[in-house]
Every structure is written in C-alpha cells, then in structure tokens.
C-alpha cells in the first residue's frame, strides 16, 4: 500500500442534510463524524490534494435524499468546490456520474480515503469497489456514521456495532482502517 499523498483522493460520500432526520433514519453513532470530515477536507485543501464529493440522489420520493428536497443538499461541513462531484442513486460511488474510476485513472490517482455516511452502506460499498479496482484504500472510520438497524425479527443492531463490523471487514482484506488524527494530526 502506498503512503497517502497527492495521489490519494479524499472521497466524501453522501454527507447530506437528509441524514439529520432522526425520525426517518433512527439513532446514529459517532457524533464527531462531521467535525472529522471537516478536518479531512481542510487538510486535503491545504495540501492541494484531490477531493471528490459524492451525492446520493434517491429514486424514492419519500426519501429525505430525493432530488429537489432540502435534505438532498450537502451539510455545511461539505463546502467549497470539489475536484469532482459524483451523483449516484446506488450504493457505490464508482457507479455514479461522472465515472469516478475514469477520473481517478486520468489523474493518476492511486488511492482513495473514504469518509461519509453511512458506514456500512455507501461508504463500505464504495470502499470495497475501489479496493477491487486496485486502489489503495484508507477507510476513515471516525469520519463516518451509520444508524441502528431493526432486523425482520425485531432485533436491534446498534450503529456502533455495525460500524465495528464494517471496520473489521474492510481491515480484513480490502484496505486500511484509519482515524482522522492519523491523516491530519
């Protein structure tokens, strides 16, 4: 794995206002997520490293992330212009528009540092997809959050546990799980 440098793009996944709707999503983990994302964006900008923002445009009209709804907008922490804006309606940013893989290849970017919302959904899917495409992967676990999941049998899986499972999976063969302080400290 290469060191994180100007050949590592920060991929900020789905940090949108609609995820603040606790009634819709339920309880979340990691209240420091947005602060850490802000620190990562600031560090990448300070060094002139590439940044990619990803926005989920839900196809479900009832979703807070549906285009045209206020929740589709980025949270305030995701300000300024990225080097690339990808929109998607599926889990992987690599299946959005414009083509993230083609852009990374064109710019000779060898690695991705993934952060955002939700840890076990779009962040993990984007990370796995990127790893499978050959990118050196940094999974910035404290710059992500997710929500509790209620299973079909009514068992509640807590967001903090779900986040740990994602980190274990990614660290077991897809990439390196890191913390914000390791990248900006």
Task: Give a quick summary of the entry.
This protein is of the alpha/beta class and 185 residues long. The chain has helices at residues 22-25, 33-47, 100-106, 119-132, 159-171, 180-184, and strands spanning 8-13, 51-56, 84-88, 111-117, 136-145, 149-150, 156-157, 176-178. Helix content is 31%, strand content 22%.
Strand order of the largest sheet: 3-2-1-4-5-8
Query: How big is the Rg?
Result: 15 Å
Helical residues, percent: 25-40%
CATH topology: Rossmann fold
The secondary-structure class comes to alpha/beta
From the spread of the alpha carbons, the general shape counts as: globular
Per CATH, the superfamily is Isochorismatase-like
Specify the oligomeric state.
Answer: single chain
The biggest beta sheet reads: 6 strands, parallel
Explain what you see.
This protein is of the alpha/beta class and 185 residues long. It has one domain: Rossmann fold (3-Layer(aba) Sandwich), CATH 3.40.50.850. It has 6 helices and 8 strands; from the N terminus they run βααββαβαβββαβα. It has a 6-stranded parallel sheet, sandwiched between helices. A two-stranded antiparallel sheet has the order 6-7. Helix 4 runs parallel beside helix 5 (159-171). It is globular. The mean pLDDT is 96.
